[in-house]
Model the fold of this input.
Amino acid sequence: MQLELNINGVMRPVNADPSMPLLWYVRDLLQLTGTKYGCGKGLCGACTVHIDGVAVRSCVIQIGSLKNKKITTIEALAETHAHPLHPVQKAWVDADVSQCGFCQSGQIMQAASLLAENPGPTSEEIDLAMSGNLCRCGTYTRIRTAIKNAANIVEDAQK
Amino acid sequence: MKRREFLKVSGLAGGGLLLSLSCTASALTTNVNNSTIFFNVYLSISNKDEITITAPVPEIGQGVRTSLPMLVAEELDVDWHSINIVQALGSSQYEGSNQRAAGSNSVRVYWKPMRKAGAIVRNLLVRAAAEQWHVKSHECTTNKGIITHTNSGRSLRYGQIAELAVKLLPNENVALKNKEEFELLGKYIKNVDSEAIVKGEVKFGADSKIDKMVFASIERSLVYGGKVVKYSDNDAKKVSGFISTLKVDSVGNPDRPYVREGVAVIADNTWAAFRARKQLSIEWDNSTNLSESTKKLHDTCQKLVNEAGTMVRNDGHAEKNIERSVTTVEREYHLPFIVHSPMETMNCTAWVQQDKAEIWVPTQMPSTTQRSLVQRCNLPIEAIKVYATRVGGGFGRRLSVDFVYEAVELSKKLKKPVQVIWTREDEIMQGVFRPFSYHKLRAGLDNNGVIQGWLHRQSGTSRYAFRKGYNPANSEFFINAFPANLLKNYRLEYALAKSNISRSILRAPGHNALAFVVESFLDELAREANQDPLVFRNNLLAEDKEFIYEKNDEGEDEVISVSRLKAVLNLAAKKADWAKPLPKGHGRGIACHFTFGSYVAHVVELIGDPHGRPEAHIIKRVTSAVDCGQIANKAGITAQVEGAIIDGLSATLYAEISINNGQVEQNNFDSYQLLRIGGAPVEINVHIMNSSHHPSGIGEAPYPPISAAFVNAIYDATGKRHRKLPLTQS
Done:
C-alpha cells in the first residue's frame, strides 16, 4: 500500500523506505532544506518540525509511523498563523537573534510549539522547553528575549 | 526591505570579470530595458536603481554579510534597506585574495578598500550628473541614491546616470566620510539575512542541490592515520539507495594525514549513504597511532612542566628573583583537547568536469580553496568556481580544504556532482583539536604584593609542531603578550609533548589557553598579596606603555597598548559595580586580554551553587568592555561578544576530547556536551569603547578572557579554585 504523508498541507506519495527518518525524506526527497541535520540522535534540535502542531526531532522519527499525521516544516510555519510571519518569527527578527542561522529553524519550531501549548511561560519554563536546542554561536540570551516578546504578541492576539 | 539574494551564480558577478578599482567596468546589456553597470568587484548599479553589493568574506555567523556591505553603502550614500547583497565567489580579486574569515580581520582588511569603492562610485555618479547638467560637481549633493543640483533642484537617480558615470576616470584620491557624517557605520544595524533565516530560506553548504548529484559518506578509521587493509561492501550493497563504494586515499603525511584514508559509500540520498556505511566491513592497520592516549599526555606534560624547557623569552633573572622573594607562588594549570563542532558538519559539493570545476562549500577561505584546486583538478584557475555558501559555524575548522579534497576526488572518479557530508560522530571523532597543554607558573611577591619575578613553563602538543622551522614562540606563546615588558624578570619556557594526535587552530589560537592561565594566576597572586584583583592588575598596568606585539596578517606592526587594556579593565569593573559588596555565596571574577589587536575585559557575577557543582552556579550577569577600534556595526560587535561568552563558558564547563588506544572517546552531543540555554547568563551587558583606531576585529577577542573571569568568580563566591578544564571533569 502506498504510503502518503501530509507535508505542509500537501499529501505526498512516499517512494522511500518506511524506516527513513523524516529529516532525510524532507531534505533529500522533497528538497525542503530549512530543516537541518545536526546530530542524527535527537540531541541538538536542529531538525525540529511539528507533528500535529507539536515539536518533534525529525532525525529520529521514521516516515512509516506518520500516516494520518499533519507534518509542518519551518517553510510553512508562517502559514499556520494569520500574519506574514508567525509571531515567533517576527519576534526573532525584531530581537536580531540569528548569527549563522543554522540552528534557528529548529529553535523557532520548538519555541512556536512551546507557545502554542503554554502562551505565558516563565523564564524557567522557557529554558526547560528550549534545553534540547543547541546553538554554537551563543544566541541563547536573545532566544529568551524573543520568546518572551512573542509570548506577549500571542497573548495579545488571543485577547 | 527588498530581497536579499544569498548567492548569485552567474558569469557577471564575482569570479567572472577581472576588475580593479582603477579600471572602468563595462556595461552589460541583458535586454533592451535592463542593463547593469559593474563599477568594481564590490558594486553594480542597474538602470532600474538596483544597487548590488558583493560581500567578499563568507558569513560564518560573524556578521560580515552585514558589516562589509555597510562600508560600501555608507560612502555610496544609498538607502540601506533597498540594496541587494551577493556573496563573492572564491577569487584573487578581493584585496590580495584575502576573503578569509580568519584572524578577526574582515572589517580590518576591508575597512578602507570597500569604503573607497563606494566613495569612488558616488564621486563618478555626481560628476556624470554635473556633466549632464553642465554644472559644477560641488554644486551637487547626494541623498540615498539621488543626486540633486542644489540651485536648480534638478535631480537624477543613480540608476539613470550609471551608464555615463562608468565611462569617467575614477578619482582614486576621493575623500572618505568623517566619523561624524556616518549614517550606518557605528550604528546598530541588524543582520541582513534575518528574515530569510527565520523562514528557513537561507541555504548552507549542506543544502546545495545540484541536478544528478549523489551523496557520499566516508568511513575512516577511528584511530587517526589508520590505513585500509581490505574491505567488503557486500552488506552495504543491500541498503536501498546504495550506488557504489570507493576508496578515499589519504593526502599528506600518511601517519598524520591531512585528508584521512577511508572508504566512501555513494548513495542516492544522505540517509542511505549513512546507513550503508554502517554495513561496511573494513580491516584497518592502526599500528601507527594505536598507542596515542590523553592519559599518556597527562603524564608526559606533568613531567615536562616540572623540568626546564626550551627557553622562549628570558628577561632579567626570573628564577633568582622568585627564590629571593618574601612570598613564592607556584601553580599548575591544564587545558584539554577540544573540538570545533560547529552546528553544520563538514560538507562539500563538487562537480569536476573536463573543462571546469564547480564547488559549493561552506568554507572560511574561498580564495585559497580556489587556488588549491588548480593542481588537484588540473584546470586553469578561471575554470574553477568556488561558491562560498553560508557557513553554519566556522571556529577555525573550515580554514582547511580536507573536506573539499574528499568531494573533489570522488567527483573526479565518478564524473558526477558529489556531496560529501560528515556525520556528527565524524565531526567529533575525526576532528582537528585545540592543543592539549599544561602550564606551570611561578612568581615571587614582595611585601607590597609587587611581582619580583615570573616564570611560565608550558608543555603541550603545539598546533604547529610539524611545521618546518617549528618554534613554539610563534604559536604557543605570544612573547610580547601581557604581562611581558611590564616585569623586569620574566621567563617563558616550552616543552613539546610528542604526539601525532590531529590538532590545529581554534578560535583565538594560543590566546584561548594563555588568557585562562595568566588571568587565573594573576587572580591567585592578588589573593596571596591580600589585594583586590582589580587593584592588583591596575598596579601591574600602572605605566602607560606601548610595545610591539607582533606582525599582523598584513605584515604591519601590531602595537599593544597598556592604557587601552587598562581602559577596558576599568570600564568593565565600573559597569559591573565592582566595588559594591555582594551577599555571601555570591562572587565576582575579572579578566582582561589582548587578542590580535583588540582589548576585552569581562566581569562575571554569579551565585555559587551550595554543592559547588560548576554547571549549577547561576551566572547573574557578565559585564564586558571591548575596544576594537572604530566601530563598523554595533549590532555585530555586541553579538560577537555575547556569542564568544557562551562559547567560552561552554568550553570551560564541558569541553574535553579524551583519547584512549588511539580513539577519541566522545562521539556526539551526549558524550561531548555543550552549554545549553539554561546555562546562559541571565544578563550580558556589552560596553563598546569609542575609539578612533583602525578597526581591529572582534570575532575572537572576547573568547579568551571569559574562562578566567568565570573561574575567578567561582573562587570569589565559593573559595574553590579550579585549575584544570573542563570544570565538570576536574
